[in-house]
Design brief:
The complex is a heterodimer of chains A (116) and B (113). In chain A, 0% of the residues lie in helices and 55% in strands. Chain A has 116 residues and is mostly beta strands. In chain B, a hairpin with a 2-residue loop joins strand 6 and strand 7. Chain B is mainly beta. Chains A and B meet through strand 5, strand 9 and strand 10 of A and strand 4, strand 5 and strand 9 of B.
Chain lengths: 116, 113
């Protein structure tokens, strides 16, 4: 079976510090990978997605970047964190599908990021 | 106007009652519909997904899609306190780039013993 791991679960960082959040998936090959942010009491905002190694699509211009150095590894980074970067960051994966096949997304348990 | 609208709640019901949740959407091209359950401080968990219109039942859960009205529903029968969570609807175009989903904002549900 497939599993998705995110770490750390909680992170407190000062403004202006760098960030690196990591996500890995096991039990599948060539998945689609996603980074979302969820503000308190709000829905999910897609930040980045990737359909393959080194292929990153950005949905929202911001202070963050993403990389996919290996097939099942997805990294969210920032060089200098802002107060507005606080939130709950979720990684997700799905099987790649084409045409009419539905492949839902499956989520990790997230990283709660607080910027002080 | 958001593409997918969902009442944020909270929706409070007594244990054993039927929980009725719904989402409306504006893009008639959506073809795949999903419901996720999210407990506090956890990631969303897929509950059900359906394609196009119709009903789908899984245990205590029933999902309905009415494409003509651009309206989807989730019903939870015999609700339990463990059903207390936020429920998110999500939908997808038939050929969405990267299988991207569009989410509603979520409805918080409280089931009181």
């Amino acid at each position: 079976s497939q599993t998705i791991h995110q770490w750390p679960a909680t992170l407190v960082q000062p403004v202006g510090s760098p960030l690196s959040l990591e996500c890995t998936v096991e039990g599948t090959s060539n998945p689609n990978l996603y980074w979302y942010r969820q503000a308190a009491g709000r829905g999910l905002q897609l930040l980045f997605y990737s359909i393959g190694i080194g292929q990153i699509s950005s949905e929202v211009p911001q202070n963050l970047s993403a990389s996919r150095p290996q097939d099942r590894q997805f990294i969210l980074s920032s060089k200098k964190l802002l107060l507005s970067d606080s939130g709950f960051y979720l990684c997700a994966w799905s099987v790649q599908s084409f045409g009419t096949s539905n492949q839902p997304q499956h989520f990790g348990d997230g990283t709660r990021l607080s910027i002080l | 106007q958001k593409e997918v609208e969902q009442d944020p709640g909270p929706l409070s019901v007594p244990e054993g009652a039927i929980v009725s949740l719904n989402c409306t959407y504006s893009n008639s091209a959506f073809q795949y519909f999903m419901w996720y359950r999210q407990y506090s401080r956890k990631g969303p968990e897929l509950l059900m997904y359906t394609y196009s219109s119709g009903n789908k039942e899984d245990g205590r859960f029933t999902a309905q899609v009415d494409k003509s009205s651009k309206y989807i529903s989730l019903f939870i029968r015999d609700s339990q306190p463990s059903d207390s969570a936020t429920y998110l609807c999500a939908m997808r175009l038939i050929k969405a780039a990267g299988n991207k989903l569009t989410f509603g904002g979520g409805t918080r549900v409280l089931v009181k013993p």
